[in-house]
Amino acid sequence: MYRFAIDNQEELQEGITRVLREQYELIIQLTSIPDDIDISVHEIRKAIKRIRAILRLVRWDIGEEIYQSENMRFRDLARQLSQIRDYHVIITYLAENFEAEELHIPEANFISLINHLNSKKELELKRLIDNQTLDTIKEQMEISSKELKEFPFDFLGPHTIRQGTSNSYSQCLNKISETQLKLDDHPLHELRKRVKYLLNQMILIQEVWPDFFKTYSTSLKQASDLLGDDHNIAESILLINNLPAKVISDEDKNSLTDSFRKEREHIHRDLWPLLGKLFTEDAKSFVKRITSYWLISRE
Predict the structure, then answer these.
(1) Which domains are assigned to the chain?
(2) How many helices (H) and strands (E) does the chain have?
(3) Planar angle of CA 118, 40, 68, nearest 5 degrees
(4) N or C, which end of the chain has less CB nearby within 10 Å?
């Protein structure tokens, strides 16, 4: 029902407008019937990332003022759901690795740790309910849907694809360089976001040449997932190291963080060769090729 792709038969303005409206509708639906709060929160955040990827694509058409206003609005909405999502991811990650006997921590201590994290997650869920966060997000989507017809989309065209993808691809290259210079959590986190934006833009225009774009997007998705796993582990290390001694002993902290760091090393061994293959071209060559595919598909 909500297909994140522009058809070759659609004008760019028509396709962008339809896809944005469908993403707003999807979020409204997810906030209206949250049968599983964890799944709903995850899907809402994914939809917001897709919306922000489109905003980056049309940034030079809608102007910096509208772009900054909309981008910050959706960023702030997503942040309201970040804490409960983080707890779910960390709890799931710990449980899966303990089940696979990858974590060297006594079972009783592990259960105590999970119970503590679940209690924190329950408090965060209560905060969302008390603050009517999902209702607020739903209202904002309804407003966005009404305001969409006022967006200056009249002159979207090949330049939109060229400028938007050029910016996303260039930012990925820049963040790769920054991360290689300083292999730290923050540069990796920023690289993860940029790869996700480019991935969503490639999926959006994949009907231009499905064979190429689906193959490229699959590899981008692999890189995005690896970066996501790395980010989840980094957040787990940070959270565990900040827990008080009554929740987890220093010995168990050291054991867990040692396991996590080894897992990150495995991830990085897979990640960097993949990124090297995905970003072999300079931005100018990549964007020229993508724009050519777009133009040929419109003939």
Answers:
(1) 12-297 (1.40.20.10)
(2) 12, 0
(3) 105
(4) C
pLDDT digits (tens, 9 = 90+) for 42-75: 999 999 999 999 999 999 999 999 999 999 999 9
Largest CA-CA distance found in the chain, in angstroms, rounded:
67
135-144: Cβ within 8 A, 24+ apart: 135/31, 136/77, 136/80, 137/27, 137/31, 137/44, 137/77, 137/80, 137/81, 138/27, 138/28, 138/31, 138/32, 140/73, 140/77, 141/24, 141/25, 141/27, 141/28, 141/31, 142/24, 142/28, 144/20, 144/24
Q: What whole-number distance in Å separates Cα of residue 198 and Cα of residue 205?
A: 11
pTM of structure: 0.94
Q: Is 83 exposed, middle or buried (0-12, 13-18, 19+ CB in 10 A)?
A: middle
Q: How many residues does the chain have?
A: 299
